[in-house]
Amino acid sequence: MNPETRPFRVALDFGTGSLTPFGESLVRRLSDMAGSYADQAAVDSLLACGADPVIYRAYDAGVPHQPGHLIFRTTIIDAGTVGSEFFMTKGHHHDRDSAELYLGMSGQGLMLMESREGGFSSEELAPHAAVYVPPGWAHRTVNTGTEPLIFLAAYFADAGHDYAAIERSGFSRRVHRGETGPELRPAAAALGEVTG
Ligand code: S6P
Ligand code: ZN
What we know:
Blueprint: E1 11-12, E2 19-20, E3 24-29, H1 40-48, E4 54-60, E5 70-77, E6 81-82, E7 85-86, E8 100-106, E9 109-115, E10 120-125, E11 130-133, E12 137-143, E13 149-156, H2 164-169, E14 173-177, E15 182-186, H3 187-195
Antiparallel strand pairs: 1-2, 3-4, 4-5, 5-13, 6-7, 8-11, 8-13, 9-10, 9-12, 14-15
Bound molecules: D-sorbitol-6-phosphate and zinc ion.
């Protein structure tokens, strides 16, 4: 435990996701997410015409990354699609399997969670909902609405982040804009549909 860390409070703006007095700690654009979206042609044509949209941003409360502490930060995922696939986070495992808690602040989304043993679960994330991610479950958040999806996540300071496995094989399901609303599709089928 860092003896120099005193109790503190932050101002949480549920409308913008800002965490005052902290600034943005992360900005991920489409070009930062190579291979994440199924429709590579859609990615290429957006980038080729000079559109490299911001997909999501985060504000971090600056808690020390030392055992015993609890990191918390907000994420704001803009509304939009790449092809028919909704804007989403890269998704990750934690290096040290440990739990995480998500709290919906604004907008409408879906969390995809996958265990190392192949288990799959999806939960809606919206204001007044908290989603518990158990130890060992990879997680990705998808904005299925028309407004920014804003949420707070809290996790152990020594959890670490492992993006490699998700970059290699992705999640088993993807979330697409369907005729009547968001559709959860098997990743292989979603890929077949956009390329076929
Ligand atoms: C951290 C937590 C979130 C994500 C953030 C961005 O453990 O799950 O704060 O970091 O939503 O997603 P990603 O997958 O790019 O880290
Ligand atoms: Zn996490």
